[in-house]
Amino acid sequence: MSQKNDDMSIAKKTEKLNELIAWFESDEFELEKALAMFSQAEKIAAEIEHDLQALKNDIEVVKARFDEL
Amino acid sequence: MENITTPRFAVSDFIALTNQTLEYAYPSVEVEGEVASFKVNQNKYVFFDLKDADGSIGCFMTVWQLRIPIEDGMKVIVTATPKLTQWGKFSLTVRAVRPSGEGSLKKSFELLKAKLEKEGLFADERKRQLPYLPQNVAVISSVQAAGYADFMKIVNDRWGGLKFAVASVQVQGADAPDQMIRALRYFNSHEELPDVIVIVRGGGSADDLSAFNDEQLVREIAASRVPTLVGVGHETDTSLADMVADVRAATPSNAAHLLVPDRKEVIRDIRRSVRGLLPQIERTIEQRRSELQAIIEAAFLSIHRRYEQTYNTFDATKRVLAQLNPDNVLARGYALIRGSLSPGSIIEIEKSSILVKAEVKDVTEK
């Protein structure tokens, strides 16, 4: 369950990071706010990197038998 | 005495006893031979002879049991039960047929490929895309097989946080196609379907991989509600299961590469994107600096123009004033006269360099 939450969190963080990156290219860009936004992007990127490296897959062999009719 | 030791039967009883004996002695046999007199009756019943240089046996089976196309001259191995019919004819009741030898395998492959191709099962229009990042993945393979281990190792290296449900089945041999079909039906029958079904198996001989050329398996893959990814054998191997899959992988390792992105690449991309923001800030600062510079230069130019204008006006005024200076008039030879202009009065005459006192002698109108 926590794996799923972590993954959702990565998806949200990635979405947030993409929004921040898009801000730099948008008309809303303001030089006065740019450094703060950059620091925020750097922080989220580091978090995503950490989360990605920690993720493990959940592998389950199903109990159903396929060798019988 | 003879009547006691020699059994006597009715014909049908004897046939039944013979079949009982045969069934006890050979519940299942494999017989290898060449197909002759192949025919299908009423689209239901298949008849052919299996022969070699010195003998021939009649064979019977149903169409649905025939999982590969066969034709006269092909060498096959049948799995069958020997039987004596009620008309006294000895035959094999066949449960499965598989090609024998490379030539027959290839022939069978080409026949089925042509048939399925004609039906459009391999058409590009049928192919569905795999989701970019599937959350629930169904895997059909043998958990003991090297191909499965390769696949899972690469998947685990590349990405995490996914849920894998693995159906462990035989991936070679006579039972393999049916087991894979049951696994496909199992995953397709869930209320919550997986995002993708992956079928993987490592390399092997043509005979080992022939399970993936089974007609019913190929049709089941084509009918899957869930997009399929199939990676069977080595890069040079081609199976009909590969061809019918939505996405075809060259090997199990390649299937892992196609299924999930590489977290290392994703991390590299993120770092590159964030690093790319700094030049954007620097560019904006440089742009602002240039704009400011331009404003200062324009202001300076404007001030300079005003100064020039004022200076020129002043210069012109100065020149006018200079022209009005009496000294300049005197310098041109004129004289300034002071005093009363009446006869006998003394007047003062100023020239540029001398002063003269003179007496007025006469004054007349011009």
Short summary:
By secondary structure, chain A is mostly helical. Helix content of chain A is 70%, strand content 6%.
How is the secondary structure organized here?
The complex is a heterodimer of chains A (69) and B (366).
Chain A: H1 2-25, H2 31-54, E1 58-61
Helix pairs in contact in A: 1-2
Chain B: H1 2-5, H2 11-25, E1 29-41, E2 45-52, E3 55-62, E4 75-84, E5 90-99, H3 101-118, E6 136-141, H4 146-158, E7 163-168, H5 176-188, E8 196-201, H6 206-209, H7 215-223, E9 228-232, H8 240-244, E10 247-249, H9 252-259, H10 263-275, H11 277-324, H12 326-331, E11 336-338, E12 346-350, E13 355-359
Parallel strand pairs in B: 3-5, 6-7, 6-8, 8-9, 9-10
Antiparallel strand pairs in B: 1-2, 1-4, 2-3, 4-5, 11-12, 12-13
Annotated CATH architecture of the largest domain in chain B:
3-Layer(aba) Sandwich
Structural class of chain B: alpha/beta
Poorly predicted parts of chain A:
1-6
Reported for the largest beta sheet of chain A, the result is:
none
**Amount of beta strand of chain A:** 5-15%
Question: Which CATH C-level class of the largest domain in chain B is it?
Answer: Alpha Beta
Write out the CATH superfamily name of the largest domain in chain B.
Succinyl-CoA synthetase domains
Q: Taking strands numbered 1, 2, ... along the chain, how are they ordered across the largest sheet of chain B?
A: 1-2-3-5-4
H/E order of the elements of chain B? HHEEEEEHEHEHEHHEHEHHHHEEE
> What's the number of domains of chain A?
1
Number of helices, where a helix is a run of at least 4 consecutive DSSP H or I residues of chain A: 2
Q: Sheet with the most strands of chain B?
A: 5 strands, mixed, barrel
Shape of chain B: rod-shaped
Distance between the termini of chain A: 34 Å
Instruction: Calculate the terminal CA-CA distance of chain B, rounded to whole Å.
Output: 200 Å
CATH topology term of the largest domain in chain B: Rossmann fold
Largest interface: A-B, 33 and 38 residues
